[in-house]
Amino acid sequence: MGRFEGKVAVVTGAGAGIGKACALAIAREGCKVVAADIDGSAAIACTAQIASEAGHALALATDIADAQAVAALFETAERQFGGVDLLVNNASAMHLTPRDRAILDLDLTVWDQTMATNLRGTLLCCREAIPRMIARGGGAIVNMSSCQGLSGDTALTSYAASKAAMNMLSASLATQYGQVQIRCNAVAPGLIMTERLLAKLDEHMQRHLRQHQLLPRVGRPEDVAALVAFLLSDDAAFITGQVMCIDGGMLAHVPTYAEGGNSAAARPAGHIAAVTVPHG
Predict the structure, then answer these.
(1) For the chain, first and last CA: distance in Å?
(2) In Å, what is the CA distance from 176 to each residue of 145, 171, 172?
(3) What gap in Å lies between CA 221 and CA 207, rounded to an integer?
(4) Which of 92, 100, 180, 192 has the alpha carbon at shortest distance from 143?
(5) How far apart are alpha carbons 264 and 243 in whole angstroms?
(6) Is 257 exposed, middle or buried (0-12, 13-18, 19+ CB in 10 A)?
């Protein structure tokens, strides 16, 4: 018996990367998964893989910025599988990040659309999930934040602000609904090498980012999925209202770490220009 036998989960942004890894991880432990993604064909591919491993899943093309689409998503989950116990809010407007610049250069349309998906879309999913979880005696929610929401950067203003707000949304939800046995935590990934990110980063950029990690490799979607599965499970029954970094130690050190820190022995010479990419 897996940790999620008899449970039903909705996973948004399940068509690729971290979302797909999360959907697969919990399905392998017995969960029935509703895989939602704005790319319907990608959601179908995710559920096909789950079905090939003898799991149970349903794919739905869903834009979480659309309140009616979100309502239909959860109504379908309830109709097909009887309710909702678990929610992974992973969907994010990643297609906007190349245009997400510093404050004075920021197109306000990018800000508005990022907030509509990343923050309002997450709120809409939570509002649909909570009553259904209460009806089943409780549940667990994981919101996919980012290390970008915990530190400043030279760009990605909208993305970072949306993720920082998501952290407080998670704490508010945990506070307001803990008494009815609903837990909510946020997960903040660092450099996780999804297919989408790999297409953006050449080896030079990867090397620069790895210099700021404490561990010698980049993260994998499966690393994040393992943490998400833990937080959704009864193994984490007393954990709620937390923001958990999974970043290889990227935010755990002094800013000069990559240049040798405060030790006399500096790292090998060779300055690499800074680059800005979204983490998580």
Answers:
(1) 31
(2) 20, 9, 6
(3) 19
(4) 92
(5) 34
(6) middle
Q: What is the pTM of this model?
A: 0.93
Among 129, 92, 2, 124, CA closest to 56:
2
pLDDT in tens, the chain (280 residues): 699 999 999 999 999 999 999 999 999 999 999 999 999 999 999 999 999 999 999 999 999 999 999 999 999 999 999 999 999 999 999 999 999 999 999 999 999 999 999 999 999 999 999 999 999 999 999 999 999 999 999 999 999 999 999 999 999 999 999 999 999 999 999 999 998 888 877 888 888 888 899 999 889 999 999 999 999 999 999 999 999 999 999 999 998 888 888 876 555 544 444 445 565 6
The count of C-alpha atoms lying within 13 angstroms of the C-alpha of 87, restricted to the half-sphere facing its C-beta, is 33
Contact (CB, 8 A) for 121 and 65? yes
The distance from CA 133 to its chain's CA centroid, rounded to whole angstroms, is: 20
Catalytic residue annotation:
159
Tokens 């895989």, located at residue: 35
